[in-house]
Amino acid sequence: MTLTNRFTPFKVTFSLQTPVVLGAPWLNFDGVISHLIFRERLGQDYYTLPSKEPVTIHDGQLLKPLKRSRTYGAGDGGEIIHASVAQFDVSIDQAGTVTVYKRFDEQYCHEIATATRKVNVGSGLFRAYMMKLPYLPARSATFYCNGDLAEIVRLIGYLPGLGKKTAYGYGMISSVSVEETPEDYSLIKDGVAMRPLPCSFGYDSDEKMMLTYKSPYWDKRNVAVCVPPGAKVYGY
User: Fold this and answer.
1) pTM for this prediction
2) What distance lies between CA 123 and its chain's CA centroid?
């Protein structure tokens, strides 16, 4: 079986027990999958990576379970992953905010390997903070993608929650359903962008934004003029 033949279009629906906390306007499925693959590959070392250092494993190695479309001559690397952003069952008008707190737990002072007698909680590694984040009171989140169905199902079996602050109990998953779709809706569905679509690929819209279009989505090198998710698309 060739790599192309094992790819199939399908949708994944997560039923949620708790609201989802977001760190960005959209939650990208290829970002979720690359996170799971990277964590599986590195094991516990995944949690000790320098926070400011880019991932050294090339994106092409991380996202093999997902289909890629390529275009030549594009200034953005010429690839787009077939995976949508989350389609929540609530609108953005229902979004709220939640305040999360982080503070140093004094009971672990003896584990700090330092001669310093005081722990600085005003800055640095042990900085205490209070942060407001947006959340959606969603009961389900659906992603459309095209890829290796069996491998995707295996990977998401290790996913405890969606979004940020899952350790706080947000975005907890109660069940997952997977269903093949008659067409590939991972990029466009009913004429609407399902993920950031780089205009250099020939996509066009009355709405355009500067967006990162592939993981890691925090990397500014991946920013390009895109049709944003939810916008009407033409020229494809």
Assistant:
1) 0.83
2) 28
* Residue listed under structure tokens 């780089």: 198
Collapsed DSSP state (helix, strand, coil) of residue 32: helix
**What percentage of the chain reaches a pLDDT higher than 70?**
78
What is the distance between the alpha carbons of residues 23 and 38, in angstroms, rounded to a whole number?
20
Give the separation between CA 60 and CA 157, rounded to whole angstroms: 22
**What is the C-alpha to C-alpha distance for residues 235 and 203, in angstroms, rounded to an integer?**
5
d(CA 203, CA 114): 55
Q: What number of H helices and E strands is found in the chain?
A: 3, 14
Q: How far apart are CA 175 and CA 26, in angstroms?
A: 21
Using one digit for the tens of pLDDT, what is the confidence trace for 159-186? Answer: 989 999 888 899 999 999 999 999 999 9
Rounded Cα distance between 198 and 186, Å, is 14
Quick one: DSSP state of residue 164?
B
Contacts of 192 (CB under 8 A, 6+ apart): 230, 231, 232, 233
